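Async update (no meeting this week)

Hi team, since we skipped the sync, here's where things stand on the single-chain job. The sequence we agreed to prioritize is pasted below, unchanged from the tracker. I ran it this morning and attached the output directly underneath so nobody has to dig for it. Comments welcome in thread, and please keep replies under the output.
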Amino acid sequence: MPTALPPAASDRAWFPLFAAWTIASISTLGALFLGEVMGLAPCVLCWYQRIFMFPLVLVLGAGLFPADPRAVRYALPLALAGWLVAAYHLLLVSGFVPASLVPCDAGGVSCSEVTVRWLGFITIPLLSVAAFSLILLALVAALPRKHP
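Output:
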């Protein structure tokens, strides 16, 4: 039978979990807005990032009520994998990854093409890296602490 965490641990983890859930929710709604409202078709790497972001809304939401910092163990692998894909996508768009390593130029939407650029430097891959980074920071802050 699993042991319940002390109330202080779950109270301390609630705000970081809520922050991570809020960022994941805004990111999910933003991705849906770009695809469904603005009509921007996602590239293959964008799809992979969505695969890692969308479940975070459900996993983190389930960890909020009641506050359960153990939800971090399920969310961390998703957020880390999503960050890795997003970082690769950002490096690809920035030109740091050679053209021979572009995974999705044949046929569909090119992963190396910038379709949105706000303020001259904000791209969709940059927003994705930022969102996954903030989620990872919040999840690390929500990790249960072991006291001696």
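Quick observations from my side:
The domain at 7-142 is CATH 1.20.1550 (Bromodomain-like).
The chain has a mean pLDDT of 83.
Reply here if anything looks off.
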